[in-house]
Amino acid sequence: MILGHWYLVIPSLQVSHLQSIVKVHIASMVVRVVVVAAAVFMAIVSWQPGMGPSFRGYILSVSGIFFWQRVLFGLVGPGLLSYLTWETAKIRSTQSATGILYVDFFTVVVGEVLAKYLLLATRVPV
After folding, report:
1. N or C: which end of the chain has fewer CB within 10 A?
2. H helices then E strands: how many in the chain?
């Protein structure tokens, strides 16, 4: 986001820097999705009767809305926005890419806050 801001201040900067940072962001999003999927899979598979409520039951209950918001705002939204940023940087529209990065940043923050809530509520690190 900070690098994107420099493109507003100094428009003559090379776009390759922005493109490489966006590639790193896309790679980190892929890793985050894999880690969250593994955590959810392990939480569902490792549950045994008598251990309390299951994570699958939590996901499908009304309280599971927080999990689905985490998925939407913390994983799907930033993934889509990072792809849009990549496509915008490819056509060298740095101002638009910067705007998308700002929105991307806030969706990541909301997703991480929801992840911390879920960790406290369910003890599953999603």
Report:
1. N
2. 6, 0
DSSP for 2-51?
HHHHHHHH-TTS-HHHHHHHHHHHHHHHHHHHHHHHHHHHHHHHT--TTS
Lookup: tokens for 38: 């593994």
Whole-model pTM? 0.84
- Rounded to whole angstroms, the Cα distance separating 98 from 2 reads 9
Here the tokens at position 32 are: 């985050």
Q: Rounded distance, CA 99 to CA 87, Å?
A: 13
Amino acid at 83: Y
Give residue-wise pLDDT tens across range 83-97.
999 999 999 888 888
